[in-house]
TrEMBL record:
Residues 498-917 form the PcRGLX/YetA-like C-terminal alpha/alpha toroid domain. Coiled coil: none annotated. It comes from Parachaetomium inaequale. It comes from the Eukaryota. The keyword Signal applies. This is Tat pathway signal sequence domain protein. It holds the Pfam family PcRGLX_2nd. Residues 126-491 form the PcRGLX/YetA-like central beta-sandwich domain.
Length: 918
């Protein structure tokens, strides 16, 4: 029996904290996404909890391995105030365990406040704040952040007392025009400007037992006193962990310039590296190449010379060690050292995802000497000395975010520099102008007609990048002496895929903290196994397409395309609304839910890149349209449809909580809270409106009950969960609008309502002021997050949902796919505009599961099989090579991203709700 128990325990069949985490146990296991990393330099993760289990002030969290400190805080609450999501930080550890167990210990009320008060060990992290600066000491490095001026970091010091980085600043180069051709370069007068960071605000986290977060905000200011205003606002977040000599930077910019005057020709982060006193032959340059490779050079090389200084000397230099005393070298070298040139500058440019170039020179006025380059550079540069120490800088997704670069300058002087280029000055400038001149599309009528052919929804002045953003992740590493290149390779592997801790899918599901609409993969029947295979195919195919189609670049990385052109064997990258996808029909939701159920690393990374793209580039963060996203198109921001459905906060929710409340994502969620105000300025349906209504700020506006309301509701719910600064306002609007929907005679079937921006309530639409009941159903209402948002919201409310709201949603889920006769019997008329029935099969599944209605379950599977990607579809690709394509492809010509997303979501949710009746 004991043997059997042990066997079952190994399989995880037996419960108990030791074998398995579940929602009734007080300990939860987290493990690394993918393989356990070689090193942990400090990490933050999120953990969900079931409703009612722990009140924030009645629990203490620690790791069951009592040796490792844990910092804990709350990122989300259930309605009753119990913890929904906690976040935890662990310090750098010498060893990396495959998994960690977070132990929740109930404590007397008021003692905990959700924070670890553990005094088991003295923390090594110390934070000092004065009027002028913030200083963080991790035990391994001390970093100072000035509160004003041009430097985002004033110094990085090692525990050994060496300053290895100083005067860190952001750099920006711009030009006010781009010559159209090479010939035009002579007659176009171009003004070029240089800018650097100008700090406006520096804040530091309050609880710093394991992790300190320093947030630096400001704008880029001109360095030469030109009259260009300060612009391109930035936020740089610095994450520092106990015992770690690494610093993680999350660098975000928002474009607030003019698209035809402010062309970014270089955007970077620059650090000075003190080298005074270091012999030139002891100064080292390391640049990451491909596959963990490095360019290993010294400023003054003593290898390969006509005379040999001796093997020990040569080996030491290549390994980055202090060279033996000159007296031990062959004197034929030491007497001629002054004839060996010093290489002051190095430059690596990754101008495409397929190749990088390398070069070096002795000084700016001399020719570059080319160094053999390669395909995809690792993205790390090191400059330092064998005795003085040095600094390494790494950019995550370096080649995927091309055009990027790494420059080392003045390495032979007292102070060298490393510049990381998030946008390389060697590339053509970032051109955010529209790709066509408007083509005479000066009336709504013409624009709607053009939509009929290119599927582009153009409108003058709407193709603006004003307010879009981009976020990059950067790592800094400090060293007391030049490290081995193997060490640097290990650190760069960490920078490229920062390790992520996450709870098991079983546990997350049980807590319901990310909904009840997904279940674990299940291959117990051939029909279910077939769907699992199909989902796996879809996710792998898109990952492969990212690579095949080179969906990479400063702005593009993370996004996918919308529709395929079977004739050209090419995605329709140049055809209006068929080009970049911009979250159309929620691929973000599919990928994240697929990750939740599988826990797969490839899926996590894909989802993360998508979220980082769609949340930043496809949405506005300042200005009149703050909080709105832009419809799919050739350029991410150029379509005239600026709508809340595209910036849907639900798309960000999974990453936000799982990451332990990624602060940048939290900020993006806040931006969307203001999206309701935009309706007073911009009418989303202005081009098709026939009643002559015009928006005016503050006056009631028409609000689509699916695409508009579901996006606002998601943001309000998240703010309520987070108990953010505006949570009471958010809750009021959520309750107000849901009550309004419930009171509509036809509920969600009404299609829209009149939203009162002033007090967050919803009344019948202008087309039905007396609430007699109208029928206006759109196929789009429920495919931008509405099913996820409402089911989470109803669980959040429990028995406290506004009266009639649950019933209104159940009606919609039943009648959307009902027969014309059923619709007529209920509403007096049948629905027109019903399509996307496969997508909506998950509404039937929801109804069937909550109402225990087998007939509707069968209907769900019938609609699922006969629409969208049909049951008869073979999930295969066809190889196309030769002169038909730029390079060979394996195409799935039958697949569009709309179907990818909605087939994925319908599969996941039908299996979760009505899997047994498949
Ligand atoms: C959950 O874990 C506890 C022990 O912590 C165990 O007693 C219980 O049976 C488990 N429940 C499930 C549903 O696995
Ligand atoms: C503080 O640093 C020392 C030396 O690096 C280390 O041994 C100790 O474990 C650290 N303390 C904590 C709480 O991490
Ligand atoms: C909201 O404003 C409208 C219009 O002024 C008003 O009729 C309604 O009673 C208000 N509702 C609440 C809850 O304040
Ligand atoms: C399923 O739901 C429909 C609509 O409410 C109802 O007419 C039907 O009787 C239900 N069937 C079962 C088996 O409960």
């Amino acid at each position: 029996m004991a043997r059997v128990s042990r066997f079952l325990a190994l399989l995880g069949v037996l419960g108990g904290a030791a074998a398995q985490s579940n929602s009734s146990s007080s300990s939860v296991k987290v493990s690394w996404v993918g393989d356990s990393p070689a090193q942990n330099l400090g990490t933050t993760f999120g953990l969900p909890w079931p409703q009612g289990k722990y009140q924030p002030d009645e629990v203490d969290f620690k790791l069951s391995d009592g040796q490792i400190q844990l910092q804990s805080w709350v990122t989300g609450y259930w309605r009753d105030g119990s913890i929904k999501w906690s976040a935890h930080a662990i310090p750098k550890t010498d060893a990396v365990a495959d998994e960690y167990t977070v132990q929740a210990t109930p404590i007397a009320r008021g003692k905990g406040k959700g924070k670890s008060k553990s005094k088991r060990q003295a923390a090594n992290l110390s934070v000092k704040e004065t009027g002028n600066e913030v200083t963080v000491n991790t035990g391994k490095i001390t970093v100072s952040f000035p509160k004003k001026g041009r430097h985002i970091v004033s110094s990085i010091k090692t525990a050994g007392g060496k300053t290895v980085g100083k005067d860190g600043r952001l750099v920006l180069h711009t030009q006010n025009d781009i010559p159209g051709t090479a010939d035009d370069r002579t007659d176009t007068a171009i003004d070029r400007s240089n800018f650097e960071s100008n700090i406006e605000e520096v804040t530091v986290s309050k609880d710093n037992t394991v992790r300190a977060l320093v947030t630096v905000r400001g704008k880029h200011t001109t360095t030469e006193g030109s009259d260009h205003k300060d612009w391109l606002p930035f936020v740089v977040r610095f994450y520092l962990y106990t015992n770690s000599d690494a610093i993680r930077l999350v660098h975000s910019i928002t474009f607030d310039g003019q698209q035809d005057k402010d062309f970014i020709s270089g955007l970077g982060i620059q650090f000075q590296v003190p080298l005074k006193g270091e012999e030139l032959y002891n100064r080292h340059v390391r640049l990451a190449g491909t596959d963990g490779g490095f360019l290993n050079e010294a400023v003054k090389g003593i290898t390969g010379l006509r005379r040999d200084p001796g093997a020990a000397v040569r080996t030491a230099q290549v390994e980055g060690k202090v060279l033996p005393a000159e007296s031990t070298w062959d004197t034929r070298v030491t007497t001629r050292l002054h004839w060996i040139p010093a290489w002051n500058d190095y430059s690596l440019s990754q101008l495409s995802p397929d190749g990088f170039t390398l070069k070096k020179r002795t000084e700016p006025s001399r020719s570059w000497v080319h160094i053999p380059g390669g395909t995809r550079a690792g993205g790390l540069a090191y400059l330092g000395g064998a005795t003085q120490g040095g600094l390494a800088v790494a950019l995550r997704d370096f080649w995927k975010r091309f055009p990027t670069g790494l420059d080392i300058a003045n390495a032979g002087s007292d102070q060298g520099q490393i510049t990381l280029w998030l946008y390389s000055p060697d590339a053509s400038p970032l051109d955010l102008r529209g790709y066509h001149d408007g083509m005479g599309l000066d009336t709504y009528e013409k624009q709607l007609d053009a939509l009929e052919i290119t599927y582009e929804d153009y409108e003058e002045k709407f193709d603006t990048p004003y307010g879009i953003a981009r976020t990059n992740e950067v790592f800094l590493y400090a060293f007391d002496s030049t490290p081995s290149s193997d060490t640097l390779a290990g650190l760069n592997a960490h920078a490229q895929e920062p390790p992520v801790l996450v709870a098991k899918p079983e546990y997350i599901k049980e807590t319901k903290a990310l909904g009840s609409y997904w279940a674990l993969p299940d291959t117990s029947s051939p029909a279910k196994a077939k769907i699992e295979n199909n989902l796996d195919f879809l996710v792998k195919h898109y990952q492969k397409e990212v690579e095949t189609r080179r969906w990479y670049g400063f702005l593009d990385h993370g996004d996918v395309m919308h529709t395929y052109d079977t004739d050209r064997h090419q995605w329709r990258y140049d055809i209006g609304g068929y080009a970049w996808d911009n979250s159309e029909l929620s691929p973000d939701l599919f990928i994240w839910q697929y990750f939740l159920r599988t826990g797969r690393a490839d899926v996590y990374r894909f989802a993360e890149a998508l979220t980082r793209h769609t949340g930043e580039v496809d949405s506005y963060h300042i200005g009149d349209w703050k909080g709105l996203g832009t419809r799919h198109g050739v350029m991410h921001f150029a379509d005239s449809a600026k709508q809340a459905r595209i910036s849907q906060p639900q798309y960000r929710k999974y990453f936000f909580y799982i990451s332990g409340g990624d602060e940048r994502t939290g900020e993006l969620l806040e931006h969307t809270l203001d999206a309701d105000k935009t309706y007073g300025k911009l009418d989303p349906v202005r081009k098709v409106r026939t009643d002559g209504w015009k928006p005016s700020p503050g006056a009631p506006v028409t609000f689509g009950l699916g695409t508009d309301w579901a996006a606002m509701a998601a943001g309000w719910l998240i703010e309520w969960e987070r108990r953010g600064p505006r949570w009471e306002e958010a809750r009021k609007k959520l309750v107000g609008t849901a009550t309004g929907i419930a009171k509509l005679k036809n509920g969600f079937v009404t299609g829209s309502g009149s939203y009162l921006i002033e007090n967050g309530t919803l009344q019948p639409p202008p087309t039905d002021p007396d609430n007699k009941g109208i029928v206006a159903v759109s196929h789009l209402n429920a495919v931008f997050g509405m099913p996820e948002v409402i089911s989470e919201l109803l669980e959040y409310w429990g028995g406290d949902a506004p009266q009639g709201f649950r019933e209104a949603w159940l009606d919609y889920t039943y009648y959307y796919s009902g027969t014309a006769a059923e619709q007529t019997a209920r509403y007096g008329t049948s629905f027109s505009g019903v399509s996307l029935k496969q997508a909506h099969s998950r509404l039937s599944a929801y109804y069937a599961a909550t109402q225990h209605n087998a007939t509707v379950a069968a209907r769900a599977w019938k609609d699922y099989r006969n629409d969208g990607i049909k049951d008869t579809q073979e999930f295969t690709t066809a190889h196309v090579g030769g002169s038909a394509v730029v390079h060979p492809v394996d195409e799935a010509a039958w697949l569009s991203t709309n179907d990818f997303a909605q087939y994925g979501l319908a599969s996941i949710q039908n299996l979760a709700y009505v899997g047994d009746s498949i």
